[in-house]
Amino acid sequence: MDLAPPRITVKNLDMSYGDFVIMRDLSFTIRRGDIFIVMGGSGCGKSTLLRVLVGLKEPAKGQVLYQEGSLWEVDEDSRDAILRKTGILYQRGALFSSMTLAENIAMPLQQYTTLPAKEIRELASLKLALVGLAGFEDFYPSEISGGMVKRAGLARAMALDPDILFFDEPSAGLDPISAHLLDELILEIRDSLHATIVVVTHELASIFAIGNNCVFLDVETRTMTASGDPKELLQNTTDANLRHFLTRGEK
User: Fold this and answer.
1) Which of 72, 56, 147, 136 is nearest to 104 (CA)?
2) Which long-range contacts (CB under 8 A, 24 or more apart) does 112-116 make?
3) 61 and 14 assigned to the same domain
4) Residue 250 lies in a domain
5) Which SMART domains match (predicted)?
6) Do residues 141 and 152 make contact, with C-beta atoms less than 8 angstroms apart?
7) Considering the entire predicted model, what is its pTM?
8) pLDDT tens digits, residue range 16-57?
9) CA-CA distance, 85 to 226, in Å (whole number)?
10) Are residues 29 and 109 both part of a single domain?
11) Cβ count near 28 (within 10 Å)
12) Which of 31, 76, 133, 160 is surrounded by the most beta carbons within 10 Å?
């Protein structure tokens, strides 16, 4: 049994835009080493929850507790220090088109470290090699495929050796083969770097291939209705909305 303290604990969280409540009463735990899936149908608030977890949107109520402190109850400098140990892969990679892949990955290293330029270049090459892009340092994002852009975005997310990686719909826009290869890469990174990974997705293949823990956001009730291993939820759930989501309505 894993006795390590939770990496992230969410308690009694409400999310809203003005008076419109998106989700209420969210409480769940992300353990160290989890590949934690935030799942649910369109409009349920998956991406909004991700924004709350990474410090981009303040919750209407509740707490987001990292091991280092309560994300929304500490001062701005302390929040930045907490988030410095995280990395984010955005849905479309979010690479700067005017920069080479190596320059994209070097940017956070230049901003947050005092490493010399030669060492930064070497680290950028190492991160690209970790995601299968060795030799692509001087390519621009427009010169590579969509799957390779996602991998390069992941390399940049790993630039500062984060403890936690966040992925926003990583398989969006990818063909099935590229999506499968990205899933395998996520598993490899979790196992080799001992990272905790949080993935926002609605893709069933990815949910069952990589997820060992999850939360289901039910768009109808505007709250979470389940958490745990997605495979076990599929076998044991009596919730009609969750079963429909996990089977896509198959009989």
Assistant:
1) 136
2) 112/84, 112/160, 113/160
3) yes
4) no
5) AAA
6) yes
7) 0.90
8) 999 899 999 999 999 999 999 999 988 899 999 999 999 999
9) 28
10) no
11) 20
12) 133
